[in-house]
Structure formats: structure tokens, C-alpha cells
Amino acid sequence: MFPSTEWALSHRRAVAVAAAATGALAVVLLVRRARRRAAQPRRKLDEEEESDYEEEEAAITTLAQLRALRAPLLPLAAPAVASVCVTGHSLHLAAFPPALCALRGLRELDLRGNAIPALPAGVGRLVQLTRLCLSGNLLTELPPQIGKLQMLVDLDVGSNRLAALPAELGQVTTLRFLNAMNNRLEALPDTIGDCTALVRLGLKSNRLAALPASIGRLHGLVELYLTDNLLEELPAEMGQLRSLVKLQASFNPLRALPAELGRLPNLEMIRVASCNIAEVPAALRDAPKLAWMSLASNPACRTLSPRKLPTVEVKDLNMGRKLGDGASGEVFEGCWQGRRVAVKVFVAERSPDGHSRDEMAIAFCVNETHLVKVVAQLKQPLGLVMEFAQGSPFAEKPNLQSLLRCRWGTGQTFELAFILRVAIGVASALEHMHYRGIAHGDVYAHNVMVSEEGHATLCDYGASFPYHKGGPVSYEAHEVRAFGLMLADMVRRMDIGFQGMEQLLNAQKELLAVVQQCCSGPPALRPTFGAVGRRLKTIQKAAALAGLANVTPRSGAASLASLTPRTCVTEFFSPRSDVTQTLHD
């Protein structure tokens, strides 16, 4: 029932070799393995050898464990480590530990937030790596041996000091996610086009003056982040990115957009605020899935004449709890002149969707029952004082996994009357905005505050922009699609019980027909928000005749109240400024 003497001796020798070559960590792993084997019947050793090997694979998660690895490591004596995650805290790694290069079975390596200035050539020996995270270090270059990591799927080198990416990166044809944001990149290698598996490419906040034409070969690319660079134009080859859904390129000196973007079959979002675009190509009029766009602070936009509002200071407000936050600011509950208000404080002068001054100008120009109403301007810190919108956000913000789709509560359902009241309210708000030649830019359920009775208030003008009515692009048609997607989410969760089932099914069919008209076909054939509102009111009248028009106060309101407020996730990172203390001082 016990292992043979020869087997025990062989393990003692292995422990001795490991002690000499690798230090305490390898000894611990080998002794642990020996003890487990000694406790098993001999006849089970062979059949369980593979699973036993998998169980013993270790994860290094502390700096002390990492320092226990001493170089040089003998390949046969190196511990079976599948994952290393040692992120910077009070203590930082000042160099890449050479002993890591001998962990041939390593699959995940996370050393973000340290102070590593360079990677050794030996990193190319980690051929089993699927994820390599080195963001927040001091890297100035990547070694060409990075091209040997033929199983790498996720490479994160954001927030370093990289001036270039090696041409050998193009050899990593398995790479799906590449984050090189917040570096000093001035150009991309032509071989970037060989990374044909790329799904997400983050290049925000660099010094890129141009993109190579080879980027057009990234036919699987879904998300492209180019915000805050030095790009004056985008290559026409981007018209070959047939899988592209999301394009972020605000804060570049772009003079124009390539007309080829209009033929991309899956493009849903374009962010190009604060560029130098004088005219949007007419081809974008026919972009079949475009639903969200920001264009503020471009010459192509119309000039606004906002109404003047009173200016207040923090001392004039009685500030309360924080309600939520987003890309451009944080929202607090407050009291001003005896009335309950919501106070939005801008954490920075600009967000990925545009300048705070653009959002404020839009907010001063709109006034409708279902739009959040601004009543004053906060002087310092810069912000908006708004009427308090009753209710809670209708859904949760999108994340990287859901991409451009809001997230809804599990098992969440809505009555027909509730759906109709919310949809009619949002359609009325958007009809008013487009009547005034203003695109909202961020029509999402999470930007709609909904009361228990179904009163809807559309919030957040962070991506809004004024446009010339009658121009080459129908921005209203794009936003009608965004509205249709939100309506589809509601109809999908419609509560259909036995009582009035036939009428409910007929109403659902009618609503799905509205969704079809809003989301399908050429944008030029989509209805206006006025027409959508009238159609929804017709369905509401039919529901009233069937006794289905009354909204029952929602017993599930607590689930709505638990949802995260505010705006869409538009970048990988959304840095925050802690303004809470300022507001309460």
C-alpha cells in the first residue's frame, strides 16, 4: 500500500536538486506532491498521475512567493506554476524576475502596477502564456521575442512609456485583446495587420499621427479605441473592418471621416467629439446599424444660443449622498432653495464623449417633461443643478462583456402599460430634442430614470451635439434605431399572464412591428420620433379598451433601485476625482 523504496529515493533526490536550484517554493511544491502520493494506494498512482499533476499547479500571488524563486532555474526542477499575479501595492518590483522565464508551463502573468523598466529576452520562452498583463510599469520597449508567444490571447501594456511596438508582434496570430493605451506610441508597425484575431485594440492617449493601411486586414476587430492622439485622418482601408462595432476617436485633429465607414455592416457607435471635422460624409447616412454618435465641438456642428441660468456655489447647496457616476462626472442628491435637486459635478474638463462645456450648453437649451431639467449652474467645482428625477435607472450600464447593450435584472418583467408609458415618454423627449436639432448621442435604458408608475426622464447630455437639420446625415434615424433596441429589450421582458392573454399577445406583436420599423431597413426609411410616439399611443388606446392601460405600482421596484446609475462605459478606464470632500467642506 506504500510507494516503493526506489520511488521514494527518486523523490528525495528531486527535492535536493530543487532546493539547490529553486529555493523554498519548489521544495514546498515537491514535498506536498510526495506526501499526497504516499497517502495513495500504489495501484492508483498511474491512473491518477495526469489529474494529480494538474492539481499541484500553483499560483504565485505575493511578492514573497515570487522572490522565493531564485535564478537560474533548472527546467526539470522548476515548480509547476500556471499563474503569477503580483500587482503593485506598497512594495513594487523594480525589475522583471529572471526566474519567471523558466516557468515553461506559465499561462497567466500579471505584474501590473509595478516599476519594471524592461522585459528580458527570456520572456519568449514562456510559450504557454495566454495572458500577459504589464500595465502601469515603466516599460520603454517590448523585446522582439514577444513574437514567440504563439498562444498569447490577451496583452495589456497600457500606461507605460512605450514609443513603439515591435514588428514581431504581428507573429502572435492568436492575439485577441491588445491594450496599449496611455503610452508614447508615434506609429504602429505594418505587421499589426497580421494580428488577424484581434477583437479589441486600445490605442487611446498616445502620439499616433497616422494608422497603417494594414489595419484594414483586421477583419475580426470589434472595438477600436483611438481617443486623444494626433490623427488628422483615418485610412480608407478602415472600410474593410466588417466586424467593427465601436469606434472611439474623439480629441484628434481629424479633418474628415472616410466615407468608407458608411458601408461597415456592424458599426453601431462612433465617437468623434472635439476634432476638426467640417463635414460628416453623406455615406454615414446609410450606415445600417449606426445608433450612437458624438460629434460635439466640431465645425460640422451648429452653434447654440443657450438660455442663461442662475449661478450657484457649493455653499448655497445642502449636499447629500452620491447617486452615481459616469465618464464625465459624479451625481449627488442635494437641496437648493428648499427644493430637492440632483447635482452633477464634472470631474474633468472633458470626457471621452466631449467637453463639459458642450454638455452644459445642451442642458441649457432643452425643456420637456421627459427630459432632465437644469435649474442652475454650479460655479466651482463646475457642475449642473438639476431637478430631481423620481425613480431609478431603468437598466444597468453596459460593460466590456455586454459591449453596447444594457444589462437587465435576472427575471425582470414589465407590464404592458408600464412599457408603453416609458416608451412614449422617451420618444416624446427625443422628438423634442430633434425638433430643436439636437442629437442625444447616448440613448440607453440606463440613461432613463423610471418611477414605479412608469414616468420616464431621459438624462445625460454628455454625448449630445447640435446639428444642421436637413444636412446629409439623418441623426434622428440613427437614434430611432437606438430607441428601437431599447424597446426590444422591454418587449422581450413583457409580462404575459392568463388574464387578457390574447390582447397582450396582440399588443406585443404590434410593439415588435414598431421595433422592426425602428431597427431594420435603410435609415432613410425609418420613422421619426413623432411617428413612433403616435404609433405607441395608438397601441396604448387599444390596451385601454381592453382594460390593460393601468400601471400597477411595481413590487419589484427595489430591483430597479439597486441598479447602477449614469452613463455608458465608453473607454477601458474611467479615472475618478474624489470631489465628495470638496462638496462637503
From TrEMBL:
Intracellular or extracellular location(s): Cytoplasm, Cytoskeleton, Cilium axoneme
Binding site for ATP: 344
Membrane-spanning segments: 14-34
Main localization (coarse): cytoplasm
GO molecular function terms attached to this record: ATP binding; protein kinase activity
Family matches, as SMART domains: LRR_BAC, LRR_TYP
Species of origin: Micractinium conductrix
Superkingdom of the organism of origin: Eukaryota
Coiled-coil region list: none
Protein name: Kinase
Signal peptide: none
Keywords: ATP-binding, Kinase, Leucine-rich repeat, Membrane, Nucleotide-binding, Repeat, Transferase, Transmembrane, Transmembrane helix
Domain Protein kinase per the UniProt entry, residue ranges: 317-585
Gene Ontology CC terms, in alphabetical order: axoneme
Listed SUPFAM superfamilies: L domain-like, Protein kinase-like (PK-like)
